[in-house]
Batch of 2 targets.
Target 1
Amino acid sequence: MTTTAVSTGVAVRLEEVSRRFGTVQALDGLDLDLAPGELVALLGPSGCGKTTALRILAGLEDADSGRILVGGKDVAGVPVNRRDMGMVFQAYSLFPHLTAAENVEFGLRLRRQSAAARRRRALEMLELVGIGTHAARFPQQLSGGQQQRVALARALAIQPQVLLLDEPLSALDAKVRLQLRDEIRRIQLEVGTTTLFVTHDQEEALALADRVGVMQAGRLEQIGSPEDIYRNPATPFVASFVGLSNRLAGVLGADGVSVLGTPLPVLNASVAPGPVEALVRPESVDLTADPLADARVVAVSFLGPLARVTVSLPDETLVVAQVSSARLADLPPGTAVRVTLLPIPVVVSSPR
Ligand SMILES: Nc1ncnc2c1ncn2[C@@H]1O[C@H](COP(=O)(O)OP(=O)(O)OP(=O)(O)O)[C@@H](O)[C@H]1O
Ligand SMILES: [Mg+2]
């Protein structure tokens, strides 16, 4: 097993950071806190400001206003190469004319280490990311996943205080992506580096992070543990962006929202009583085959241990239910089913 000097992570804080490009408000008062050694995943739709936030943190871009604190110190005016941050971007950004080992050594060279120390460190890092045997290969002799491993090794080699990952897995196929995702988490825990991981893959964010921050239009909409973000979304945007939700008509009253005749607790407060849309997770929907019922199974998708069953209500509303795939035998398309909702809290929004 490789030994890696444990760098104790630092706290990172973005305070009301704003950045405008022409008419686009890329960041609009972004507040974000990372505890030492924490991995926060930033999740959000394309264009919501994720990369801009990372670039400003790294010093590659200036903020119009707001402050960045690393280890409690304002880093305004500190240039990129003095910020002590390792970065990995979406596209493999290796130097094509350097071998894997030379790529990893590159950052160390700027730090004036001896050739022997650099080489030793580079090999140790390549070992850590699982491609120690490929040290002498050039980037074009490596697969996409291997190249991203080299990029990760290069970012970690300098023992950065902060690791910034901007969709480092998005160019990879599903299986390699999963492997490297787990590897990143393992290494991050081992090394203890405070990490900001940008993705627009919600499953990746939920699986990997200590906390997930959901961004919209240059602001943080909600931040919390993966479970919290999934179970207690603060807004309709978070509920519909993270995980699947059915949008079902309901009536909001003093003690919850009534959906398909079932009263459900409500998570968010700022919606006026009366007709609303309730965002109901597929796992909150239960189906029972019943020849007298008036809903019909219209489609079934098999997902391994689980399955999603789409049901059409008499008013033609479609509802997706998640069931154990062991139950599929009883629910073929055309089956008459009774739809019941479990009393799991939901987010409501004004009807569209
Ligand atoms: N250098 C720039 N000049 C002009 N506009 C920019 C520049 N950089 C970013 N923007 C704009 O700022 C907004 C935020 O961009 P950013 O790259 O931060 O989004 P993102 O959340 O990373 O999106 P994606 O998921 O597609 O990578 C976008 O509307 C983008 O077009
Ligand atoms: Mg981006």
Target 2
Amino acid sequence: MSTQTFKVAGMTCQHCVASVQEELGELPEVTNVEVSLDSGDVTVTSENGISKEAADAAVQEAGYTVAEWSRT
Ligand SMILES: [Cu+2]
């Protein structure tokens, strides 16, 4: 199991949160997505970690951008 946290910019309401959660959740390896509207922090749990490229693409699909990427 791998957990990664990054920041997403532009989310303003729970609808934004749900969109980001849905797109990231569609990535095949992802088992859980947590999004904090207040901080913009997104925590993704997956089997072996996801690439920044995959996260970027999913977040952009939802209409937002990854502001800060860090892998833990
Ligand atoms: Cu919104």
